[in-house]
Amino acid sequence: MKSLVLDRIKSPLVLVDREVPEPDNGEVTISLSAAALNRRDFWITQGMYPGIRLPVILGSDGAGIVSQVGPGVSDDWLGREVMINPGWHWGDDPSVQSPQFQILGMPHDGTFASHVTVPVESVHAKPSHLDLHQAAALPLAGVTAYRATFTRGHLSADDHVLITGIGGGVATFALQYAVAVGASAFVTSSSPEKIARAIALGAVAGYDYRAEDWHQQLKAEHEPVSLIIDGAGGDGYARLIDVAAPAARIVNYGATAGPPSNVELFKVFWKQLNLAGSTMGSPADFTSMLKFVAQHQIVPIVDHVHPLADGNAALQRMRSSDQFGKIVLATDA
Ligand SMILES: NC(=O)c1ccc[n+]([C@@H]2O[C@H](COP(=O)([O-])OP(=O)(O)OC[C@H]3O[C@@H](n4cnc5c(N)ncnc54)[C@H](OP(=O)(O)O)[C@@H]3O)[C@@H](O)[C@H]2O)c1
Questions:
Q1: 12-60 confidence digits (pLDDT tens)
Q2: Does residue 252's CB lie within 6 angstroms of at least one atom of ligand 1?
Q3: Between 245 and which of 7, 28, 224, 275 could a Cys-Cys bridge form, CB atoms 3.0 to 4.6 Å apart?
Q4: Is the CB of 142 under 6 A from ligand 1?
């Protein structure tokens, strides 16, 4: 099988021919049509992730057709179009993942390949309104956005929700979910083009987070926001505390811009803010996300499809944050 292997930190991925992995007890092998990138893949290539094991095939997201089943798995799976829940061993507590929690694509070989072998319990039928490229774009970012907005953020139609860094994969799903429930959605971005695309998707307005006073503009033009979904962190986090309405919820799922250096706790407690963290999602979050996406016929925003062999160009696109939505690799190309 064709696979993109990371064998050294800060080195390009290498296209390698390998044996198709045999499914073990309770596993299936999937002949992949597509994989999708997540910022995690980039962090791992840079050595900025705990517990890195090399060499490894990166990639947490994938969709394709079940080509082989291991012992104990029903033959009914064969030939079915499926996608993978990349969050494994969540455990029994819906409020937090277990210490055994793992994400497909390191340490377990991932989806930047023509085939992948995974436990059957991580496999789900492809939503019927999506093609395999769109389905590959959904799992990791889709469930992260679902847990952040609904399970942790309690999003409802009454909310004025602000989503930061709208070019990001998780952020675009959060926007689509907010629009689907009828909330008023606002975005931030470094790009006027991405703000225009967000407005075309249903956002009310967008602001350039590089402008010193963007939060004052938002406050002057609209009601203060009751929910903030943030994947950037960094020094911009202080502006989120400023722009939040009293008693607002701020849910953070990432730190693309690094740690904040200047959080004013006085504002946090005086405004009675609720700061929350969120990571991926439980199996229940994943199935609820699939149900929601099907009910609202949400189609993931695919930014660009690269052939598998161009995986390094795809990673470069993510590194420079040029994308709007998900970057997909055609693994059968
Ligand atoms: N906890 C979890 O389970 C989980 C899951 C998925 C991702 N994450 C983390 O969440 C973050 C986003 O992930 P992703 O895969 O959606 O990433 P992505 O697609 O790479 O998104 C990156 C986006 O971040 C935005 N950004 C960069 N600097 C910013 C800043 N200073 N302020 C506001 N926005 C900024 C940019 O938006 P514009 O282009 O619009 O400027 C950029 O397009 C990453 O740090 C990732 O590691 C965490």
A1: 999 999 999 999 999 999 999 999 999 999 999 999 999 999 999 999 9
A2: no
A3: 224
A4: no
User: Hey, whose CA ends up nearest to atom 31 of ligand 1?
Assistant: 257
What fold is seen in the domain 144-277? Rossmann fold (3.40.50)
Q: Provide the mean pLDDT of the chain.
A: 97
Tell me the sheet residues that pair with 84.
123
Q: Is the CB of 144 under 6 A from ligand 1?
A: yes
How confident is residue 332, by pLDDT bands cut at 50, 70 and 90?
confident
Would you call 326 helix, strand, or coil by DSSP?
strand
pLDDT digits (tens, 9 = 90+) for 141-187: 999 999 999 999 999 999 999 999 999 999 999 999 999 999 999 99
Phi, psi (5° rounding) for residue 329? -110, 125
Average pLDDT over residues 108-137: 98
State if residue 86 touches ligand 1 by the CB under 6 angstroms criterion: no
Rounded Cα gap, residues 286 and 142, in angstroms: 8
pLDDT, one tens digit per residue, over 260-292 is 998 999 999 999 999 999 999 999 999 999 999
pLDDT value of residue 221? 97
**Sequence spans of domains, the chain:** 2-138+300-330, 144-277
Determine if ligand 1 sits within 6 Å of the CB of residue 300: no
Whole-number Å distance, alpha carbon 232 to ligand 1 midpoint, is 6
| Record: fold of 2-138+300-330 | Quinone Oxidoreductase; Chain A, domain 1 (3.90.180)
**Any atom of ligand 1 within 6 Å of the Cβ of 253:** yes
| Three-state SS sequence of 168-215 | CHHHHHHHHHHHHHCCEEEEEECCHHHHHHHHHCCCCEEEECCCCCHH
Fold match, 2-138+300-330 / 144-277: no
Instruction: Of 279, 286, 283, give the one whose Cα is nearest residue 91.
Output: 283
